[in-house]
From TrEMBL:
Residues 40-127 form the Chorismate mutase domain. This is Chorismate mutase domain-containing protein. SMART domains: CM_2. It comes from Actinomadura napierensis.
Length: 127
């Protein structure tokens, strides 16, 4: 396993051990999320694999919560928000960008995943 910091542009790289910021990156007011990214070949037992999944799930929960908060802001800023304001073109752009970072998942799987994320975010914004 190794730590990697993913910046706002989606670029990834090693992080500075002293401060946790990506090497060469300017300091940000937003907190960084440091997540060990397991390599499946390095996991030898079910317990190790489940521990790796638990760590990824915890980070994913934080990211999903942050994404939902930002998406709720977008809904308030748009002339027509909520489900009626969905933009299929923008959603395709999101999936296309994600497919570049996760090609092994494939565009079809990412479309399903992001549809669920977007719909859950819209539901959360309505609360």
């Amino acid at each position: 396993m190794h730590d990697q910091v993913i910046d706002a542009t989606g670029a990834s790289g090693p992080s500075c051990p002293a401060c946790g910021t990506p090497e060469g990156a300017a300091a940000s007011r937003a907190p960084l999320l440091r997540v060990p990214l397991p390599v499946a070949d390095d996991l030898a037992t079910v317990a190790q694999a489940r521990a790796a999944i638990d760590g990824l799930d915890a980070a994913l929960a934080v990211l999903l919560e942050r994404r939902a908060a930002v998406a709720a802001l977008v809904q308030r800023l748009k002339p027509v928000g909520g489900f009626a304001g969905r933009n299929p073109g923008r959603e395709r752009e999101i999936v296309d960008a994600m497919a570049e970072h996760a090609p092994s998942l494939g565009r079809d799987h990412l479309t399903k995943i992001m549809n669920a994320v977007i719909e859950a975010g819209l539901d959360a914004a309505d609360r």
